[in-house]
Amino acid sequence: MRLEDFIVSDEDSVLQVMQIIDRNTKGIAFVCENGNLLAVVTDGDIRRFIIHNGDINSFVKEIANYQPKFVYQDELINYDNYMKEYSITAVPIISRERRLLSIRFLLDGQAIKKRNVNAPVVIMAGGKGTRLYPYTQILPKPLIPVGDKTITELIMDRFEAFDCNHFDLIVNYKKNFIKSFFLDNEVIRDVAFIEEKEFYGTGGGLKLLEGKYTEPFFMTNCDILVEEDYYEIMNTHIRDNNIITIVAAAKNITIPYGTIQVSDEGRVEQLKEKPSFSFLTNTGFYVISPEFLKQIPENTFIHITDIIQSCIQKGEKVGIYPINERSWMDMGQLEELEKMRERLEEDARKT
């Protein structure tokens, strides 16, 4: 990986730096001037900025840390121990003139030991998955293979890495396929099945869990993978005392055409060539407090987004945990399913 993949200017926007961090996949960028190290920016810095309603078009110098940890090139130290001591995953190596020469990553790119969460996980596995026809006319969406595992197994693997070992699957469509798969699977997991009598949607099915939990739990759709620190997601939810926290991916879309802005009088006011738009999109991954379930009507088809909107109107605390676009994979459509397979194969080759 090139050093240039990590270097930004203090006049770059937060959005531009997000895109650079997304491309280098290391969660960090270094602010330099004429090759000299000035500051560091992490995906955590950007996340906190967005949570506090910061404008991602602002200059990144507003959030950069201008007192970064670094090591001079002629210092003889154990880099891994140094990074562990300061709880960082990357350290810049600089000359005595502060020129950025290289970057060392903790344990050659391995993450810091994951902290346990030990929270239950709800997986919405009852839908028909019509966007994945014809596959889902034979198999239910939770059992669609992505590589050598089903999508649900991949989801469970990621939660189990954080010691989240109990799974409640809300099932309906082809439920017996799903139940048989996990009951007969050679990998034994702690899985319970909650059966819908009717199709209740991503919100209505949750009502079946009311009274089961006394602490916050994770909820995820069965067609997504989120590569993030689940401990930090849960910790943010608890710290902010949210009734629900939405994990949202920061996306930037460039319109492939020139656009025209027209005045009320019908005159052209501005031409803009291939404009870009930035926004946060709902990934379908949440942390939910038990009180949220009380907001759901019984035996009713309802989307979780409608319940969230109702909570907002009632003044309940609805939080957000932003992640970069690369941390979210969605296989809800055939084209996206293939992209997920390719991405997982790519990640496997890197490990």
CATH architecture descriptor text of the largest domain? Alpha-Beta Complex
How far apart are the termini?
Answer: 15 Å
The major β-sheet equals: 7 strands, mixed
Can you tell me the residue ranges where pLDDT is under 50 for at least 5 consecutive residues?
A: none
Summarize the structure.
The protein is α/β, with parallel strands linked by helices and 351 residues long.
Which helices and strands occur, and which strands form pairs?
Blueprint: E1 7-8, H1 14-24, E2 28-33, E3 36-42, H2 43-51, E4 71-72, H3 79-85, E5 90-94, E6 100-105, E7 121-125, H4 135-138, E8 145-146, E9 149-150, H5 151-160, E10 166-171, H6 175-183, E11 190-195, H7 201-204, E12 217-221, E13 224-226, H8 230-239, E14 244-254, E15 258-262, E16 268-273, E17 276-288, H9 290-293, H10 304-313, E18 318-324, E19 328-330, H11 334-350
Parallel strand pairs: 1-2, 4-5, 7-10, 7-12, 10-11, 14-18
Antiparallel strand pairs: 2-3, 5-6, 8-9, 12-17, 13-19, 14-17, 15-16
